[in-house]
Amino acid sequence: MIEFSREGAIWQATINRPDKANSLTHEMLVNLAQFMEDAQSARAVILTGNGKVFSAGADLKEAQAGLAVSDIWERLSGAIAALPGLSICALNGTLAGGAMGMALACDLRIAVPDAKFFYPVMKLGFLPQPSDPARMSALIGPSRTKLILMGGQRVTAEEALMFGLVDRIVTSEELLGTAHAIAEDTLAASPSIATGIKAMCDVAPRPTELP
After folding, report:
1. How many domains does the chain have?
2. What whole-number distance in Å separates Cα of residue 135 and Cα of residue 38?
3. 206 partner at 20 to 30 Å CA-CA among 127, 137, 139, 162?
4. Structure confidence by residue, pLDDT tens digits, 153-182
């Protein structure tokens, strides 16, 4: 249910459970985490999904059995955040629930126009994964983070672009091509220069949230 591929120095993971809205089981999350942990030599990593939904979050039955509070989510997002190469989340559709963490951990997020973003963790009676609020706040500011996490609001792709939650909106036909095109400059550069720039960007001060 996760497809893995390598095209030169670009590694790609594709969530492939469209009949279940790409909801994630523990096994799928472990496979994704292992892939990201193994991708230290990749110059670029692309994370995407098949179908009209990127991921609805945890598989409902497994969430009720404890997956919603498992530390595997943090293992996965931590592995993505630790990648030395450029990580791109190519959002083929809606991003919901715990799946938000893997997208937040990526360096870049591009989305299709009809994607929506929501994280109904409080409504379901859970805390978000520990690193998710901080990563979201770093991107869109604390007020907008509370709008999503506490206000339970669904954010459209256009709003997500305005907030800074996504970096570009492209058609579904252009999605993967755009992700690969963005990665090309990284691949053309010296590995030490590319990883050096990423390290410098990751410690740069964040801009103040706009009103």
Report:
1. 1
2. 23
3. 127
4. 999 999 999 999 999 999 999 999 999 999
